[in-house]
Amino acid sequence: HPEGFSLKTHLQNLIAHALQSLLESGLLSDTMPTDIPLERTRDRTHGDFASAIALTLAKTARRKPRELAEHIVAALPSSDHLAKVEIAGPGFINFFLAPAAYHAVVREILDRGDAFGRSQLGAGRRVQVEFVSANPTGPLHVGHGRGAAFGATVANLLGAVGYQVHREYYVNDAGRQMNILAVSIWLRYLEHCGERLQFPSNGYRGDYVRAIAARIYAEHGGAYVLPTARVFQGLPRDEIGDETGTSMAQGDREAYIDALVERAQTLLGERRYRFIFELGLKTILDDIRDDLREFGVVYEEWYSERALATNGAVEKVIDRLRAAGYVYEQDGASWFRSSAFGDEKDRVVRRENGQTTYFASDIAYHLEKFERGFDLVIDVWGADHHGYIPRIKAALQAMGENPDRLAVLLVQFAILYRNGERAQMSTRSGEFVTLRELRQEVGNDAARFFYVMRKSEQHLDFDLDLAKSQSKDNPVYYVQYAHARVCSVLRQARGKGLSRDEAHGLAHLALLTEPHEEILLVALSRYLEVVEAAALNHEPHQLAHYLRELANAFHAYYNEHRVLVPDDALRDARLNLSLATRQVIKNGLALLGVSAPEVM
Questions:
Q1: Cα 495 to the chain's mean position, in Å?
Q2: Is the pLDDT reported for residue 240 higher than 60?
Q3: What is the Rg, in whole angstroms, of the alpha carbon atoms belonging to the chain?
Q4: In angstroms, rounded to a whole number, what is the distance separating the alpha carbons of residues 272 and 288?
């Protein structure tokens, strides 16, 4: 069979051959359908697969669907995989597979091993997946963790079906939030040096900020100390609230922190200010990089936002939009006319003070992605960025790019539960539970699996107790235990002095006639279809659900039937079935970034 063989593909090829022969004989018009509908049946008494192709083509063929179905069935090439074909209802074609078809899947799995499930569906196409991209202003939290697990798995799935995948993290290492981080570190440093001050309510206040400040003091002593009287001189310091709140209006608070940033830059000077800025950025970015690597998430590229400013990409984009007639001046600012492309209102690309906006940088970054020649660009964003999608697509369209080449996948937040109660989200590290804390509590495997169990745009209730439990109710434990059980069977066989003859077992797969064995064989045959559907629809939860179903089928089989039976032909056949199951579980878990332990 060709690489990436699946029973569904095989049947679609048979139908395509039949349609081609009908075209050549004049029974069909001269257009072949680009997609041949074929679905697995819910009830196997109606066959294994059913196709509505005759109903789809009946109108253009000017024939009744059932009559066209009869012509298609008559033109089908012969196949050892087919037991019979029936026409049902108004013209559905039902395919009944022969046992040999499922036996061929077992051979394929054992033959291809770790490569089983991989195909060339997306061969020759380049896709960029950008995910997480959290501002380097603090450690990753559990919300970022879901985006990391989801984005990494989407990338793995696309790679499995033949796409050339480029994983990328966009580093927001410029702009206002980074300046607020720098001033937060400096203020904590001043406190560490004994200065008394009231910390701004909208500064970064996690322990990690204090740790960076303490490091500056340890390495440089009081080299960055200035009296707080000079720092806060002329600022509305008395109106700022304490650590828990503020009496200032939101706009005043924002103006206050901006004034503090400007004051720090003036008092420290360029060299000393940049040192604090760069140390904060590097420390936190290194922490994020380590955290993700330990979580099994590795990138081909960490793309710096500052690169866009230094290479003139942002200015180029604004000029290009202006030349196309989509930028206008109003109230001293430059506006992009995004409302012309369906956005709810126009957006600022350059503020009154001459500074370009985050939005302008994002346009430049996305245009740069397209210019790098990716066929498809995928962004994984938090669900709160939903309104940002139309304006980015509007900008791309305004510059003559095809906005359909950009797919934005939204990820909802994860809510933690412990003892049936919603877990407190604030911890000593800041106003959230960090990804590292979650990983330390439940482990990487449970975190990766639980994060992708539901559609990304649905809220995720993360049950910490369930994730740590060793029970069949814990999906990741249940799937891994199926893998470990097969390994246990092999150890038992060796302990009994039994050798496995794979070729002998393959020659006797026809002995696998028990209902539990048939269910397991059908489940194994679905793997390729699931991987392709999960990849093309960007839905890792399809694979997670499939692995649970496969594990359930194996556990049910194992509990009802002995694998190591005296009959060596049946024993070898059952060992091959068990090993094929183990291989598929291992391959599926690898795509999810989850380990496949041999002992549990």
A1: 42
A2: no
A3: 30
A4: 25
Closest CA to 405 of 371, 370, 372: 370
Contacts of 63 (CB under 8 A, 6+ apart): 27, 71
* Closest C-alpha among 373, 288, 388, 298 to residue 338: 388
Q: Which of 366, 368, 375 is CA-nearest to residue 395?
A: 366
CA end-to-end span of the chain, whole Å? 36
CB 153 within 8 A of CB 593: yes
Per-residue pLDDT at 47 exceeds 80 = yes
DSSP states of 31-51 as a string?
---SS---EE-SSGGG-SEEE
Count CB neighbours of 315 within 10 A: 15
pLDDT score at 469: 96
Question: What are the Cα distances from residue 590, in Å, to 183, 296, 313, 596?
Answer: 43, 10, 38, 8
CA distance linking residue 556 with residue 516, whole number of Å = 7
- Decide if 434 contacts 140 (C-beta within 8 A): yes
Q: Tell me the average pLDDT across 148-157.
A: 98
Residue 86 identity (one-letter amino acid)? E
The three-state (H, E, C) secondary structure of 165-211, written as one string? EEEEEEECCCCHHHHHHHHHHHHHHHHHCCCCCCCCCCCCCCHHHHH
Give the single-character DSSP code of 369. Answer: H
The model's pLDDT over 315-367, given as tens digits with 9 standing for 90+, comes to 999 999 999 999 999 999 999 999 999 899 999 999 998 889 999 999 999 99
Residue 93 bridge partners (DSSP): 51, 87
> 441 Cβ partners below 8 Å, 6+ apart?
464, 468
Measured between alpha carbons, how far is residue 241 from residues 209, 259, 264, 272 in Å? 20, 16, 20, 29
Residues near 251 by Cβ (< 8 Å), separated by ≥ 6? none
Angle subtended by helix axes 541-560 and 527-536, to nearest 10 = 160
pLDDT (0 to 100) of residue 237: 54
Least Cα distance to 91 among 70, 76, 107 occurs for 70
Residue 374 phi, psi dihedral angles, 5° rounding: -75, 135
Could you please report the per-residue DSSP string of 109-128? Answer: HHHHGGGTT---TTTT-EEE
User: 198: how many CB neighbours lie within 10 A of its CB?
Assistant: 16
Q: Using an 8 Å Cβ cutoff, are 504 and 110 in contact?
A: no
Q: What's the length of the chain?
A: 600
Instruction: Tell whether the torsion through CA atoms of 383, 409, 438 and 182 is positive or negative.
Output: negative
**Which tens digits make up the pLDDT trace of 575-595?**
999 999 999 999 999 999 999
The two beta strands, 414-418 and 460-463, are: parallel
Q: Which two tokens stand for residue 498?
A: 């039994």
Nearest CA to 397 out of 422, 370, 431 is that of 370
Query: CA-to-CA distance for 574 and 552, rounded, in angstroms?
Result: 17
CA 392 – CA 338 distance, rounded (Å): 9
Closest to 394 measured CA to CA, from 491, 455, 317: 317
Cα-to-chain-centroid distance, residue 86: 40
Structure tokens at 555: 């556990």
* Burial zone of 259 (CB within 10 Å; 0-12 exposed, 13-18 middle, 19+ buried): middle
Q: Is the pLDDT of residue 22 over 50?
A: yes
Q: How many CA atoms lie within 13 A of 114 on its CB side?
A: 3
